[in-house]
Amino acid sequence: METVTRYIESAKNFALDNPVQVAAASVVAMGALQLLSCYQMHMHVNPQKSIIVITGCDSGFGLMSCKKLSSMGYLVVAACLQEQSVEALKSIAALPIQCDITKPDDIARLVRETETLARQTNGRVWTLVNNAGIANSG
């Protein structure tokens, strides 16, 4: 789980200030979802044992990724900034959780809850999709 913490910490230092960067990141992320879908079909991935942590699931790409990956059978840990988003994802994600990745206590709770989910499901953290943040464009 140190890897998850390390990725979240490094993601906090990377901000997309430029609309071109935001567009490029979106294209890369969409391609990654498509690749993940193809990978699952050809590599015998067991989604019921694969945990995907997604930050920023309140709206947009994070919410869409959460819904799509959950529908594919993956165990999605959906980190949301707002409590109402957590409530809305309770029937979709394996673990919807309120988390502000700028707060060390929230990160620690996210890691603890993810570890608990891994133990309960005999699963493993497969990937982290860091989507938290707001892009300001002109």
Structure characterization notes:
It is a single chain. The protein is of the alpha/beta class. It is 52% helix and 16% strand. The chain has helices spanning 2-12, 19-43, 60-71, 83-88, 104-121, and strands at residues 50-55, 75-80, 95-98, 124-129. Strands 3-2-1-4 form a four-stranded parallel sheet, with helices on both faces.
Brief rundown of the structure:
With 138 residues, the protein is an alpha/beta fold. It has helices at residues 2-12, 19-43, 60-71, 83-88, 104-121, and strands at 50-55, 75-80, 95-98, 124-129.
Unreliable runs, pLDDT <50, ≥5 residues? Answer: 11-16
The quaternary state of the protein chains shown equals single chain
What is the spatial order of strands in the main beta sheet?
3-2-1-4
Structural class by secondary-structure content: alpha/beta
Order of helices and strands, N to C? HHEHEHEHE
Please indicate the percent range of residues in DSSP E strands (runs of 2 or more).
15-25%
Coarse shape: globular
Helix residue percentage: 40-55%
In DSSP terms, counting alpha (H) and pi (I) runs of 4 or more, how many helices? 5
On the 0-100 scale, what is the average pLDDT?
Answer: 81
State Rg.
Answer: 14 Å
C-alpha end-to-end distance: 38 Å
By DSSP, the count of extended strands is 4
Task: Detail the topology: elements first, then pairings.
Blueprint: H1 2-12, H2 19-43, E1 50-55, H3 60-71, E2 75-80, H4 83-88, E3 95-98, H5 104-121, E4 124-129
Parallel strand pairs: 1-2, 1-4, 2-3
